[in-house]
Amino acid sequence: MASVGLQFQASAGDADPQSRPLLLLGQLQHLHRVPWSHVRGKLQPRVTEELWQAALATLNPNPTDSCPLYLNCATVAALPSRVSRHNSPSAAHFITRLVRTCLPPGTHRCILMVCEQPEVFASACALARAFPLFTHRSGASRRTEKRTVMVEFFLVGQDNGPVEVSTLQVGV
């Protein structure tokens, strides 16, 4: 049985990173296009705008990179900007790996995925692959608490801004 409930929402709401850990994920050029006003509610009062800009400046995805923003409760991770011709432009295989390694611990967590409109479906599938329904690990079946991960997409490019609810319902 799955011990993680994955919820795709148009807006995950604002919360302190200490009460709801956060992973911000996307290609570096996309992360630079996210306005501070959109991530402010998810990061403040723990992370300031200057710290956010400094973290983006230190990221060097080769092929991926991550930087903790506040202890292990808020992390920003960058996907590679270029992929080989055999991989999708969304770099979906890197998304699954980054979520497994960089998602902060906790029972209620949030992922903010920054991407372009054509990459939403591939990115959502890659995020879901990070939380399998079945595992052979004996300790995983003994967990009684239900963990929830809220996923919010922020679109950059032509259709910029938060993704609409109707778009998320089509993918489900």
TrEMBL record:
It comes from the Eukaryota. Pfam families: Pdase_M17_N2 (PF18295). Residues 21-139 form the Probable aminopeptidase NPEPL1 N-terminal domain. InterPro entries: NPEPL1_N. This is Probable aminopeptidase NPEPL1 N-terminal domain-containing protein.
